[in-house]
Amino acid sequence: MHKTLLATAVACGLLISLPFDLAAQEAPTPQDEAQVQTLLAQLQALKASYAQQVRQLRELDMQVQALQAKLAGKTAPAALPAPGGTPPPAQIAQAATPPPDEGTRAGSAAEAEAARQEAPTRSLKDALQQEHALFDRKFTLENSVSYARYDRSQITLNGFLALDAIFLGNIAIEDVKSDSLTYNLAARYGVSPRLTLNLDVPYLYRKTVYQKGGAGGSAAAIAEEDTTGAGLGDLGLSANYKLFDETGSRPDTVLTVGITAPTGQSPYGIDWKVLQRGDDQYISFAVPEKQPTGNGVWQANLGLSAVKTMDPAIVFANLGYIYSRPRDFGDINTDPETRNPGSVKLGNTYYFGAGVAFAFNERTSLSLSFADKLSAKASLRYKGAPWSKVIGSDAHAATFNMGVTHALSQHTTLVTLLGIGLTPDAPDFSLSFKVPYMF
After folding, report:
1. pTM for this one?
2. Measured between alpha carbons, how far is residue 412 from residues 363, 385, 418 in Å?
């Protein structure tokens, strides 16, 4: 009983004292007001600091985007905001009220994706300069070294078949192995956003080894002779003009017009060394005393190339036509003991190709392409005689090319290109190293 009363009294006391405690808690004190003022001051300082950080982040983001666009050739340097400068009032007002995180992230991702699709990376542009043309580079000086290996064998039969099974006569195996090393200095000048001029100055060194089996009538005997040649090649001058800019349904299209001057050593008029003659004094084995470095005639080139961005790659294609102008020479006979003036008309050439380029990153890219060249037969005309076709002078040279470009610095790029011959008229393989320097 006493315990029950005691509990009841305690409960009543608590109920009675509860309103007084609540009133005491609700009544503000000077300490509470001071704490509120301190928190409000901290909140205002944090808001100001956050707004300033947002402005700085946006300024840095604008600077990065402007620099990226400048490297891609899309905007002028004047669009770059001054570091530490005062942003416009509208930007300050916008930065004072930060947007939601999700909206900011979505907008940044969309802008980054649009910027990536709008302009190719530096690595892709370096790759496309080799197959297409670029108009946002004022002046480019390119040094390149190329090596090509050519090996071709054929069997010559001089006799007849007896009983449709036994060959009676001489069997001669002819083997020609050629190595060529070319240094090319190219200058490319951007006249306007739609026109560039190109000059190519090659210097060649060639070595060719000739082998002929059946020397002296014996199939086991092999005669061998090698000749070399070095000097300036044929100079090339060309111009690229942009016909159409790339759109959603149309590729970037460029027209190329060029001429090639016969500044190299012509193959006509070179004396030949006679190594073997038959019993009837017929020349069976002869080689030139030196190797030519040019084709000896003027040529004109008309080509068209196109590039289409197909994320994440760029597809390019080209086609063209090369016209060779007939030219007169003082001697077009290979026999060193005779001299026959005449004219030479090389066969006209059609070429086409296509490929794709992938960017590994901003500095490195890989390109794969196919190139084909079809040349008609050449024609000779001795003085006072009609034109005659040269048997075996037509050619079909198809190659598969794989190239890697890497930006060494802001102004220098290394281009490596490997070509694999797919037809007998193409080199077995070729290897090129190019270093374009952009001013």
Report:
1. 0.68
2. 11, 55, 20
Where is 53: in which H helix or E strand? helix 30-71
Residue 418 in contact with residue 403, Cβ under 8 Å? yes
Question: d(Cα 251, Cα 305) in Å, to the nearest integer?
Answer: 9
| Model confidence pLDDT, tens digit, residues 155-168 | 554 444 444 545 44
Reduce the DSSP state of residue 329 to 3 states and report it.
strand
Q: For residue 262, which of 236, 291, 289 has the smallest C-alpha distance? A: 236
Give the model confidence (pLDDT) of 96-137 as tens digits. 444 444 444 444 444 444 444 445 667 677 777 777 777 878
How do the domains of the chain map onto residue ranges?
Answer: 29-81+88-118, 122-438
pLDDT tens digits for 309-326?
887 788 999 999 999 999
CA dihedral 69, 71, 74, 75 (to 10 degrees): 70
What is d(CA 373, CA 186) in angstroms, rounded to the nearest whole number? 22
- At residue 176, the 3 state secondary structure works out as strand
Q: Which fold has domain 122-438?
A: Porin (2.40.160)
Cβ neighbors of 56 (< 8 A, separation 6 or more) are: none
Residue from 238, 229, 226 nearest 266 by CA: 229
DSSP state, residue 412 = B
Q: What phi and psi values does residue 52 have, to the nearest 5 degrees?
A: -65, -40
Distance CA 180, CA 157 (A): 30
Asked whether 298 and 262 are in contact (CB, 8 A), the reply is: yes
Which two three-digit tokens encode residue 194?
């739609």
Could you tell me if 243 and 203 are in contact, meaning their C-beta atoms sit under 8 angstroms apart? no
Helix, strand, or coil here: 326? coil
Residue with token string 């039969």? 157
